[in-house]
Structure prediction request, 273 residues.
Amino acid sequence: MTSQPPVQRRSWQVMGTVASLIAGCDPATADSARDAAAGVLSDIEARMSSYRPDSEVSRFAAGQLPAGPSADLRSVLAACSWLEEVSAGVFSPYPGGPGTELDVAGYVKGWAVDRAAEALDSIGLEHWALSVGGDWRCRGGHPSGDPWRIAILDPTDSAQVRAVVLVADGAVATSGRYERGDHVHLPPGAIGSGTRVGSFTVTGPQLAFADAFATVGLLMGVDGLTWVAGFEGYAAALIHADGTMDADAAMTLQGGRNWPDPLVADPTRAREY
Prediction:
């Protein structure tokens, strides 16, 4: 009988938030995996942050790239343009409206985690879950053989777990009001459903799109469930302002309050247990 590999946990700061890696491996491999993921995330933050005047994104926005954007930035801009089109402007790389500051963070954070996932795969790691800011990319299921269990927190009380998403391979992203309140707003000219929801969770193969879809879904409200279902491989769940929950049948959930204390990987947004 093959023994279960030990579960290792590593956390660090990046992109203004907490990154967490949970992996089934020995300590030395976990350290190498953390270094590989951290290197990718830090490099992308340096190049794609709108808050750094020397980043490629900032220099591109200022017209300071005479040779044009890199292949990575062209890919990011193309994805943001597509998201703006398919969401009818609810997602926008210019959240302040046309002509305002370029901000690709709504796509780049998830895209960066997807790139870090490639680095983890390249070193042969088989069972891992990587989170940045509470959104997750998972591979291989938990070392125990069960799926990874990613918590959706109650938007009215983030100490409570409202439901658990079961995922072996893929991404889980939640956009919600939580402690920061109404920090996500419709860009000028975009039209939402007008139905307020407390949080919106999306699962799918890539975190870049799951994260962006979750932000769009939060702003669309109940219409976001049908909208997300139109993209192959993605599914959504939402918690209404009154605490009730709706979910796409394609999302594998366990529900209910009063879960036992989980093992906290990122105490600010999401939990794995």
In short: Confidence is low (pLDDT under 50) at residues 179-191, 256-273. The first strand starts at residue 7 and ends at 14.
